[in-house]
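Changelog-adjacent note: as of this version, every example in the card shows the full chain rather than a window. The one below runs 282 residues end to end.
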Amino acid sequence: MVDDMFLLGGDLPVRRLGLGTGGLVGPGYWGPRGSRAEARALLHTAVDRGVGFLDTADNYGPDLAEELIAEALHPYGEQLVVATKGGVVRTGPDRWHLAGRPEQLRAMCEASMRRLRVECIDLYQLHRFDPSVPMAEQLGALAGLREEGKIRHIGLDTVTAGQLREALELVPVAAVQNPYNLLDRSSAEVLALCEARGIAFLPYYPLGSGTLTRESAAAVTAVAAEHRAGPGQIALAWLLHRSPVLCPMPGTGSPAHLAENIDAATIHLTPQELAVLDALGQ
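Full-length structure tokens:
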């Protein structure tokens, strides 16, 4: 059977199949998607179903996703790990700007702490490297927050293998978020580096922005039929089988889709099925 647990940073156990919270806010990550009560109910359902790893960001809403997590789930139990991100300022739907100066990152982290109602963020991720600020200064700000006990683990979002190697010379990196799914293997080199270093890889767009929830390939449809599952469930199951460091965080605002995503963790793919699915990305 596939191991459904991962030790984040070598010391923090998390369930590998988590929940991304971008689906709780409106299009372009702006404003509410539905009512706050509906969002809180979905978060409660996720945790009740065993989800123990939530991924959010200060610019989802902005601020809204973090507030909803706190409203629904604070105080967090020991089994729930909450990850958030900073380094991006959103000014409208799909409009965002990089903000990587040390003082900006510190202010963003501390604001996330207040919204999440925590004294230490389990995993704080730099949402993007700001090319106008030296990497050492950006990561130095996060390292300082970690030394102060405000961050437990540091993560990076959207990096090349070269950037990850450079970052690892400066700070311990516990997690990386890059695009990776059944049809997009563009971050294969980053995944290999994460495997070698014991770094969690949180693939974003694990369902290809929804394309993999539909019948996007005959091979996926055939495997799904064998398991009486949907194509999206097979796509998530494949990620869990593909590498022990992959921790997919599919986002949704739909209770039905949430249930489907969670059930994907129970699907056991055979070596023959894995070979067929692996070939899709070649």
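Structural remarks: The first helix runs from residue 36 to 48.
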